[in-house]
Write a structure and sequence with these properties.
Layout (H helix, E strand, L loop, with lengths): L2 H9 L8 E2 L5 E6 L2 E2 L7 E8 L2 E12 L2 H4 L11 E8 L14 E3 L6 H11 L16 H29 L4 H12 L6 H10 L2 H6 L4 H11 L11 H17 L20 H14 L3 H7 L3 H8 L10 E3 L2 E2 L9 H23 L2 H13 L6 H8 L7 H15 L8 H7 L1
Parallel strand pairs: 5-6, 6-7
Antiparallel strand pairs: 1-2, 2-4, 3-4, 4-5, 8-9
Length: 423
Amino acid sequence: MTEDFLHYIWKNRLFNSSDLHTTDGHCLTIIGTGFPHHDAGPDFKQAIVKIGEITWVGDVEIHINSSDWVKHHHQDDPKYLTVTLHVVFNHDSEIYRTAQERFPTLELKNLIEPSLWQGYCKLALSEQTIACAAEITNISSLQFASLCSSMVIDRLLNKQKMIFEMLEHCRYDWNETFFRLLTLSFGFKINVAAFELLGKSLPFKYLIKHANTKLQTYALVFGQSGLLEEKKPEDLYYVSLQNEYQYLKNKYQLIPIDKKCWNLLRLRPLNFPCIRLAQLCEIVHRHPLLFKRITEENKIENYFDWLGCTPHLYWENHFYFGKLSKKHQASIGKEAIELIIINTIVPALFAYGYFAGEEQYQEKAVSLLEKLHFENNYITRRYQLAGFPCNGALYSQAFLELHHRFCTKKKCLNCAIGSHIIM
C-alpha cells in the first residue's frame, strides 16, 4: 500500500461511502473531500465532513497506518491543528487530539475494491517506460483525443509561463519577445545557449530599423554573433559585412557575444551556426514585422513560404566564412520549419491569446498543431511503437508531455490514461 494510492482513492471518492463510521463508532458523512495540498501540512485542505450531528470544515491527513501520525511527529506540529479527520488504510493505534479526546479516524481497508489496488500495481510495478502500453487497446479514440487535447493545453500553459517571464524582461514588447523566441528556436538544441545570448545582445528595435537593407541585417546578426572578429581580406563578402557591422556597432554601442559560444561538434553542415544565422537574417529582412505576421497568417502553407526563404547566395556554396564548399541548399528544410512552428509560433500565439484576452489566437495555435505532422524523435517513436495513435503534432506534443510529467516518474495516478485503466 502507498500513500499516493490512498490520496487518489480519497480525492476521487473510490471507496464505499454508503454507511461510514469513524473507528470509535460515530456516523460519518463525506460532503467534500477538499483540495490536494502539496506544501508542508495536511494532505487535503477545506474538506467538509459530518461526524455525528456536527458538520466540520477543516483538513484531512492521510496515512497508511494510524501510528504514522506519531511517527511523523504531527502531534508536535501546529500546522496539523486544523485536521478534522484522519484517513488511514489500517487503524493500528489510537491517536489522541487531547488527553481525553480521540482523533476522528476513518479506516479504508475494507472499503476499497481489491481490483483498484491490482490495477494500480499493474502500472506502478511495470518495468516498462510506458507502463500502460499493454492496456492501450482498451482506450477509445475519443478518449485519446480528449486526453491529448488536455495534455497539449497543459504543455502550452507551462510554456506560457516562460514566455511571460521573457515578455516582462522585454518590457511587454511582443515584437522583441517573439524575436528572442524565434532566435532561440534556431539553436536546435546544440546551439540554444548561443542563440539565446545573441537574441539578448541584439535589441530588435535596432535590427528592425535596418531590416530593409539586406547587408545591414546580416551585418548586425553576424556581428553580434561574434563571427566577424577575424581578418579575412580575401573574402569580399565577409569584409563588407565586417565594415558595415563596425559602423553599426559604434552607432548603437553594441557588444558582441564570444564566438567560442558556438558549437560545431556533432553537427551536420546544414546545422552549422552560420547557415542558421543566415536563415534567420533572411526571415527578418523579408518579414521584419514578425509578430504581426504570425498573428495575421491564416494559411499554414504560408508559414512554410516565409520561414523557408533562401538566404544570401553566398551561403549556397559556404558553410562558414572563407571556406568554399560544394553547392547546397541553404534554406530551412520542411521538418525544421515544422519544429519552429510547433515550438515557437504555436506557444507564442497561445500566450498572446491569453495575454490579450483573445481566444481566437489560442484556438489558432491548437489548430496549427492539428495540421502539422507527428514529430519523429526517440520519445515519440516509443509511443508510436507502443500502439498510441499518431494523428499529427497535437498527439506528439501530448506524448512528450505525458513522457516528462507522468511516464518517466511513474505518476500513473495523476494521468488520465492511468486513472482510466485503474478504474
